[in-house]
Specification:
CATH architecture of the largest domain: Sandwich
Strand order of the largest sheet: 5-6-2-1-11
Radius of gyration: 41 Å
Largest sheet: 5 strands, mixed
Structural class: alpha+beta
Number of domains: 4
Number of strands: 29
Low-confidence stretches: 21-31, 362-401, 420-432
Strand content: 25-35%
Helix content: 10-25%
CATH topology of the largest domain: Immunoglobulin-like
Distance between the termini: 142 Å
Shape: elongated
Mean pLDDT: 80
Number of helices: 5
């Protein structure tokens, strides 16, 4: 066999070229010097991003931070600033240390950064295959979960029972309640004075950026909105519960003390509505739903009286001593202004300024009039701007008809003279109002307000009804016609509109 030396040399040269090309290709294909993932992280779960992590497609064998190598093209919603660099030398993680906005773990604008291989000392990051090449305008995704920073309890409908917990988290974006089960995801370590309780039917809502609101299916204790012992709860991450818009789960928050964010309410007032034989010198007593800051109160009445305040029951009960109230139809309006609870949040009294009215009546017995010594203590609504001041009811004079002027007579049977101030003609007495009460009257209603309605019908329609304080079907039929004649809904219900019109016709 003959060998052609020339052909052999040519063949060996071709093989060497092929091997070189193959080596270059293999380095390019299998050690591509690329970033697999790039996220910013809150590794210590304190609500502030402290690093950006690039995971490479090969190990990072060495790294040294040089400020000139790195550029922040866009700081993003969290406002990143690069301050350092770290790597273990044995894995693919390259951790870029940053500072960022406190209590913020996400936002609508992603940070964008770049790395330059040749800036400063060249090749400051080394991979298994060699120096890391330039990485330009790398957009960083959100890998930081929102964390619970604080929590409060509230009384959403201001009825005196705590019914919500609000978790405030680090600011993020697109937050959702993917799943929430109250009797699993929350543990009540301490129920507190307000008696927090969890329930499988508890529900979750979010404002999308910084809060999760848990509505409690089982409200707390009645007429208690705060007190000495604050509740403590634990939120346990269920694996798919409270999340941000990129699916980062809110981590477990253990033994979180909930602050008081519930508005205190007035639980009871004395004198109470429809009090009988109430002393004109008895204290005004107000009971609140939690301890109050006594120095925050401004107490006033109209007409002005002198009061001496004392507090008791752990500053939940206010007693206002005073002189003898005036009688004879005087209306007193009481106003509590500036009052706050004793919590760290100093929550203002619900309805602040809180007002109500009562009416000491004339007569010889305390607060007495001819209708069984009744006080009207009127709190229509303690919501600001909805406080209603009732018009005081003027007393109807009790008169004895003259001889020959029986009830209903306009002319004296004996003398032929006009009958004046006849009991049957109360409509002749000027400036008379009708105390129709605050409850809607209807068929079957009884009591003083029903008697006042009968008095109105006798005055205006001369019906001659017996003033027995009982409303029957014939009276309702008359009311319906009267309502229709005066442009009201003819439903036979004597409510606010009907009562207002009746009293506007009193004069």
């Amino acid at each position: 066999m003959k060998f052609n030396l020339k052909n052999i040399v040519v063949s060996l040269f071709s093989v060497s070229i092929f091997v070189s090309v193959l080596f270059i290709w293999s380095n390019t294909a299998f050690a591509a010097n690329t970033i697999v993932t790039k996220k910013y992280l809150d590794a210590n779960a304190n609500g502030t991003v402290e690093k950006i992590r690039w995971v490479m497609d090969e190990n990072v064998t060495a790294c040294a931070y040089e400020a000139g190598d790195w550029t922040v093209n866009t700081a993003g919603s969290i406002t990143v600033v690069i301050t350092g660099l770290s790597c273990t030398g044995t894995d693919a993680n390259l951790d870029i240390t940053v500072t960022a906005d406190a209590s913020e773990t996400g936002g609508s604008t992603a940070p964008v950064i770049s790395y330059s291989q040749s800036a400063g000392t060249a090749d400051s990051v080394t991979l298994t295959s060699g120096a890391m090449t330039n990485k330009t305008s790398q957009s960083i995704t959100d890998g930081a979960a929102p964390v619970i920073l604080s929590g409060v309890f509230t009384d959403n409908n201001n009825d005196g029972a705590v019914d919500r917990i609000i978790y405030t988290t680090s600011t993020d974006t697109g937050m959702v309640c993917t799943a929430y089960t109250g009797n699993v995801d929350m543990t009540v370590n301490t129920a507190g004075t307000v008696v927090i309780a969890r329930n499988a039917s508890d529900s979750c809502a979010t404002n999308g950026t910084s809060t999760f609101t848990i509505t409690l299916a089982t409200p707390g204790a009645s007429n208690i909105t705060g007190g000495g012992t604050l509740p403590i709860v634990t939120y346990t991450q269920p694996g798919n519960g409270l999340e941000d818009g990129t699916g980062n789960d809110v981590p477990t928050k253990s033994s979180l003390t909930l602050a008081d964010n519930a508005l205190p309410i007035v639980v009871t007032l004395t004198p109470t509505n429809a009090s009988v034989n109430q002393s004109k010198t008895a204290d005004i007593v107000v009971v609140f739903s939690e301890p109050m800051t006594t120095g925050s109160l401004t107490f006033s009445t109209s007409p002005t009286e002198t009061y001496t305040p004392t507090w008791s029951n752990s500053d939940k009960t206010l007693n206002e001593a005073h002189g003898t109230f005036r009688s004879g139809g005087h209306q007193y309006t009481v106003t509590l202004t500036g009052l706050t609870d004793a919590s760290a949040a100093t929550n203002a009294l619900y309805g602040n300024p809180y007002s109500w009215t009562f009416y000491p009546k004339g007569g010889t017995s305390p607060f007495a009039n001819q209708n069984n010594d009744v006080i009207t203590n009127n709190v229509v609504d303690n919501t600001p701007s909805l406080i209603v001041t009732q018009i005081p009811v003027e007393e109807v004079p009790i008169v004895t008809p003259a001889s020959g002027c029986s009830s209903g007579n306009t002319i004296n049977n004996s003398t032929g003279a006009p009958c004046v101030n006849n009991v049957g003609n109360d409509h002749q007495t000027s400036s008379v109002k009708y105390n129709l009460g605050t409850v809607t009257l209807k068929a079957g209603s009884t009591g003083p307000a029903a008697k006042e309605l009968q008095r109105f019908l006798n005055d205006k329609l001369n019906l001659g009804l017996k003033l027995d304080g009982k409303i029957g079907p014939k009276t309702i039929a008359v009311i319906k016609k009267w309502q229709k004649d005066h442009g009201l809904k003819a439903d036979g219900l004597i409510g606010p509109k009907t009562k207002a019109l009746m009293n506007s016709m009193a004069n």
